[in-house]
Amino acid sequence: MATAQPAVKLTYEDYCAAPDDERYELLDGNLNMVPAPNIKHQRVQLKLATRLDLFIEGRALGTLLTAPCDVMLSETDVVQPDLLFVSREREHLLRDGQKVQGAPDLVIEILSPSTADRDRGKKLALYGRHGVTEYWLVDPVAETIQTHRLQGEILVPTRTFGREETLRSALLVGLELRLDDIFSS
């Protein structure tokens, strides 16, 4: 009689041994290939990164990083968010120089057809469990940004901003992002 073998969970060490000609994320010990984003995704990412970097650098608030950048949340959870912010108060997360070791203050995921379900589900829960303070889901097709704030270990939706609105963040006080500018072609 055959017995079921327990599923093997990969670790950060296994993740580091994966071929470096592809992008991967490690979610609950499962290695997932992450395809290159489409052009609209990349344009939105660049516009967000540019505006956020000017705001963050101008106020010496911390560090903004873009994908691909490993964020090690645990031995079996390594993600590459599209954008992430680590405050000055939490710079110790950047000390090893190879990866972010722990939960960033802000994580931004830009939805793609191949990753949207994971970003809205598994990764939303994962980021909450590990203490990400604020999470933005950017939808380049609907031209919206849905913000979430941490309550306990759950990231709770706080507001969805549309194309004609200005996003303000509880984490980045004083930030004003005109979404017309972000989603313009």
Q: Could you characterize what this model shows?
A:
- By secondary structure, the chain is an alpha+beta fold.
- It has a single domain, classed as tt1808, chain A (Alpha-Beta Complex), CATH 3.90.1570.10.
- 24% of the residues lie in helices and 31% in strands.
- It is built from 5 helices and 13 strands.
- It has helices at residues 12-16, 39-58, 116-120, 122-130, 179-183; strands at residues 24-27, 30-33, 62-66, 71-74, 77-79, 83-87, 100-101, 106-110, 134-139, 144-151, 154-161, 166-167, 177-178.
- The strands form 4 sheets. Strands 3-6-8-9-10-11 form a 6-stranded mixed beta sheet. A 3-stranded mixed beta sheet has the order 5-4-7, with helices on one face.
The named CATH superfamily:
tt1808, chain A
Shape designation:
globular
Strand order within the widest beta sheet: 3-6-8-9-10-11
Instruction: Give the distance, in angstroms, between the N- and C-terminal Cα atoms.
Output: 61 Å
Helix-strand category? alpha+beta
Mean pLDDT across all residues, rounded? 92
Helix-strand string: HEEHEEEEEEHHEEEEEH
* CATH 2nd-level architecture: Alpha-Beta Complex
| Range of strand content | 25-35%
Tally of structural domains: 1
> What is the rounded Rg?
17 Å
CATH C-level: Alpha Beta
Output the number of helix runs: 5
Q: Please count the beta strands (DSSP E, at least 2 residues each).
A: 13
- Major beta sheet summary: 6 strands, mixed
Q: Name the helicity range.
A: 10-25%
Unreliable residue stretches: none
Kindly identify the CATH topology: tt1808, chain A
